[in-house]
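User: Sequence in, structure out. Go.
Assistant: Echoing your sequence, followed by the structure tokens.
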Amino acid sequence: MQRVVVIGLGIFGFNIVKNLYENGFDVIAIDKSKEAVQRIKEYATKAILADGMDKEVLELIGLQEDDVVIVSFGEELAAATLITLHLRQLKVRNIIVKAPNEEHGLILEKVGATEVIIPEKVIADKVAKSLVSPNVLDYLPLSEDYMISELAPPSSFLGKTISQLQLRNRFHIEVIAIRDVLSDNLHMIPPADFVIKDDEVLIVVGKEKDIRKIK
């Protein structure tokens, strides 16, 4: 299992550590707050009380090139930037940094972040999409136009086969899987005669504007 190092244990960092550890990851958590380290230690492989901005601390951890390092420092752009620079110097390839806005994100990418996460933007996008398309349960952007969406089928879909729905012709989308919400079973690439039931959700791929048309 790939090792993950999380530097900064605010709300975002704490929940990242806890979630990854509970899913079997080897997780090292670092923060200079004794209280934060005490709070996380039962949810991490190792919890370290140290200043993540100190390059010597990062060197002592023995970071490997294939480690994933997540930097979570909220509004502290200078701290996040310095740590990102240290990580690049230590040849870490996967550096994920939390940023408060896109401007800070651009700076972090310039100094070496391989991925920048803006939690408020992600949440805002999800809330907006849930209002615009209430039957879209979740989504994964593939490009500027295309995405994979988990879709609650409207009542007009129930009892019909995929062939009868003609989703490709009517909406220009493809059903790539169907998930049974009761058993959590996943039917990959369902056949044309698969009948849609009310305890199932469709996993589809297509353009956002086309998926939004399904009400």
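User: And one key feature?
Assistant: Residues 3-119 form a domain with the Rossmann fold fold (CATH 3.40.50.720).
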